[in-house]
Design brief:
Layout lengths: L1 H27 L149 H7 L19 H10 L3 H7 L1 E3 L8 H9 L4 E4 L7 H13 L7 E4 L19 H7 L2 H17 L4 E2 L24 H17 L3 E7 L20 H6 L3 H8 L4 E4 L19 H11 L5 E3 L6 H4 L4 H11 L4 E3 L4 H4 L5 H11 L4 H17 L21 H14 L1 E5 L12 E5 L17 H6 L6 E2 L5 H4 L5 E6 L6 H11 L5 E5 L14 E4 L5 H11 L11
Parallel strand pairs: 1-2, 1-8, 2-3, 3-4, 4-5, 5-6, 6-7, 10-11, 10-12, 12-13, 13-14
Antiparallel strand pairs: 9-14
Helix pairs in contact: 3-17, 4-16, 7-18, 8-9, 8-18, 9-11, 14-16, 18-22
Length: 726
Amino acid sequence: MGNVTGRANAAALIGLVLVACTTLCTSFAPSPQPSTPATPRAADSSQSANAESTATAAAQAQPLATPNAGDGFASPGGETPPPQRFATPRAAEGPTTAAGETPPPQSFATPRAAEASQSANAESATTAAPQAQTLATPNAGDGFASVGGQTPPPQSFATPRAAEASQSAAAPQDATTAQNVATAVPQPQSAVPQREQTPQTATPATIAQQALARMTLEQKVGQVFMLGFEGTTVNASNKALIQGLHLGGVTLFARNIDNGPQLARLDAELQTIADPLPLFISVDQEGGLVVRVTDGATIFPGNMAVGATGDPTLAKKVAEASANELLAMGVNMDLAPVVDVNTNPLNPVIGVRSFGSNVDLVSQFGTETIKGVQSSGVSAVAKHFPGHGDTDVDSHRDLPVVPHPLDRLQSLEFLPFKSAMQAGVDGIMTAHLYLPAIEPQQDLPATLSRTVLTGLLRDQLGYQGLILTDALDMDAIKKDRTAAEAAVQAFEAGADMLLIAGITAEDRLHLGDGPPALLAAVRSGRVSQARLDASVSRILEAKAKRGILPGAVAAPTPPDVSVLNSPEHRALALDIARKAVTVQRDTAGLLPINPAYRVLVVEADAPTRSDVDDDQLAGSLLDAVRQYAPSTFGASPRTAPAAAQSADLIVFGTFDLAQHPEQQALARSLASTGKPIVAVGLRGPYDAAVATEIGTFLTVYGDRPVHLQAAADALFGRLTATARAP
């Protein structure tokens, strides 16, 4: 018996020595490597009164999943697991265990995790720590703090093809028994991390909370930013911006797009570098005047043209067709529709982007557009709350003021947004304008106003979806603050996603400044973590609802790129343009024009043009008219009065003539020639009321090729115009 006891004591002493050596070697080794995974029962240390044995439980430091790898979202025991990267919607399911069951998610040790405390009776367990690596962000030196407010050791984040990720979580400490440690350390899993098999019946809210629980503070901060970037490819700089800052979304502009097929390739590559979750990829594809994809995709007429048809079913058809093309190009969020009620004819920034000046029409057509976009699997964003329709200042250049009292705002400006909410719109974009009836602080833009975003939109109107800012580097915002400072203020006001576009070359030098600014605000306590979690939860839930974040609904199947600019979509676009033609007056009885006439075509100079090459339709009003009147010729505004002397009739194309005195002067000069004039409004229907000297005036609501073709068809009697100005 004494020999047995002696051998037991000797074994215990040897065990203690081995534990001490393990602890010291793990703590001080310069480049510790991941330990061998423990068997499922390795953590179950046997215990006895005389300490006959001591077991060491080792948890393997597993590499995190890349953006294309499956990932688990919750630990089997219901505890919040440490941060991991997350699978994209098309992530392949990882291998399962021999029994066919998906292994539970693996925890990851920190470099300090090896310092496990020992109990009084020398029963201890140690865990191996992965090697600390370097975190590279666009702004080197901006360390990201952990959720607990402490700055963890530098870490690196997985590239799309990297097998090693650098997120790690502290191993349990101060365990009083090996059994306690075994309970805290998750069971080992297979070499490739798995995505937990989540039933399709899981709600978007559940999926969002599971994902939120796995995110670090840096990832949460990154998720609320939607940034622009340079170029048409994913270069090193763009990768550092998007992946290094863990962005939740990107927004695309003409500088990123050559054509539809190129955009599809770019967007697919963008999702491969998303970290830790798939991106919202957004674009302003409103139709008409504002579209970002102009080559290789269908350019549909804009909102006011659609509104002029008087047929809300066409709004839904256009929205569905446009959203399908966006989906084929990898875009999952359309920053549309504009639901501002354009009651100001001198509005320099909304105009034909609105469905019209009638609030009921705008509400109805806006609702149908939202339904069409979102039924295709793309998120819609109604803009610009609380209403940009009655302004005479462009917020890209200065701060507009909407001076109306609250009762007027409630009966007009707010109504289309309420309809959008009832239609389930995923997002509402804010307007950079000042409402003195609501916001007490002088000249504080609505985007930065807690009274507007939280008090009005959230609390009074009850909106629970995403609140997105308009670009925070527009002059209405940045004239008094930087975009990064505005990002923090907008977030404090109640915004969920902070959009910084990179409008100018100088702006693009500071695209990465926003996330560190918000991170600092959270660390300092200026912004609470609960406030951050609330916005991130809404973002993740919106992604889950559209299948961008997997688990709740199936991701929509992108159409083949053959849908882009398809014959069916082109026919729909032209049909709407033709149905939108509005003859506002023809007191001189000049319509239809005699094709034998020698027609002079004059187009006014315009600050913005929508010229697009089209291999099937005319690209200018001159070419469109010439299809029917072969003797047609053109002249510049400067030479037009003299050229008119040899013409039988003048066709005069206007661009917001009501806002431009030089166009009004040209109209008077042309009228003074004594030649009959037919004016064609290539923007809104407001020019006719100003150019009263012109007896025949029709409006087509745009200068895209489909509008120009529709104008020519109407001028020469190939269609009967029945539309009315909306």
